From TrEMBL:
Keyword terms of this UniProt record: Methyltransferase, Transferase
Any GO MF annotation of the entry: methyltransferase activity
SUPFAM superfamilies: S-adenosyl-L-methionine-dependent methyltransferases (SSF53335)
PANTHER family, A to Z: MACROCIN O-METHYLTRANSFERASE
One Pfam family from the record: Methyltransf_24
Name the record gives this protein: Methyltransferase
GO biological process, one term: methylation
């Protein structure tokens, strides 16, 4: 049975000692279905996504950084939700694209260039001063053209540069959405996206909130819980740290 292990964790006081401790735990186990990474340690799991040929081929091609490899379970959740979206009318939307790695993994795994819908990717790419605290290593003036180039062979993938929700007004959003992924690490921005897009999501469509289950993003969870409760819905927190809502 396959295992999947990385050294990528957020929060340990002493990363080296933490990894050594995990290894000691593994030494007490049969090497069957172990997953280590992205703040998760599980064992005796099927890890079915490792047997998903199109998914793993896409991950191996597109996930170049260790962090991108470590969040493979999160990306598998996205693919599951996207496949559900293909069975319903509507386009795909991602709010918070960054380098476009997750979206590109989905596009390759789904052969999205030949799908009968569009994928709209929204991001600021080069953050304004007031959002400096959210800046990642790749944010800057070169990120947007790099992402555009990354999806150049997908005529039905559209890259939108701007601040949400202003970019929605300026460049538009799909009338019907079957898959919505939100990952902006900011409560105000994510709530603005939900308020603008929720009514466009079809019944049976999936909404994935990347930061929902992370304690450092508790303000996002609180804001989103309040939003969904008013809609008569509840968000499922899953072990990856994502939140899942089925409309």
């Amino acid at each position: 049975m396959k295992n999947y292990t990385t050294n990528v964790f957020w929060g340990p006081k002493n990363h080296g000692d933490f990894i050594k401790g995990l290894q000691q735990c593994c030494d007490t186990l049969d090497p069957m279905g172990i997953f280590i990474g992205d703040n998760m340690f599980t064992f005796k799991r099927n890890l079915s996504f490792l047997d998903d040929g199109p998914f793993m081929a896409s991950v191996n091609t597109n996930a170049g950084e260790e962090k991108e490899k470590a969040i493979i379970w999160r990306t598998a959740v996205l693919l599951w939700a996207a496949r559900n979206g293909l069975r319903r009318k509507g386009d795909f939307v991602e709010c918070g694209t960054y380098k476009g790695t997750s979206a590109r993994i989905l596009c390759d795994a789904l052969d999205f260039a030949h799908c009968d819908r569009s994928f709209h990717l929204y991001d600021a790419f080069d953050l304004p001063p007031e959002m400096e605290y959210l800046r990642g290593p790749s944010h800057g003036p070169d990120l947007y053209p790099a992402v555009v180039k990354r999806f150049a062979h997908f005529p039905n993938v559209h890259i939108h540069k701007g601040i949400i929700p202003d970019i929605f007004v300026r460049e538009g959003v799909p009338d019907v959405i079957s898959f919505l992924h939100i990952d902006m690490n900011n409560a105000h921005a994510e709530l603005s996206a939900l308020e603008f897009l929720f009514d466009r999501v079809v019944d049976g469509g999936m909404i994935i909130l990347d930061d929902y289950g992370w304690i450092n993003n508790k303000d996002q969870k609180i804001a989103e819980d309040n939003f969904f409760i008013k809609k008569g819905l509840h968000v499922l927190e899953i072990p990856t740290g994502q939140g899942l809502c089925l409309k």
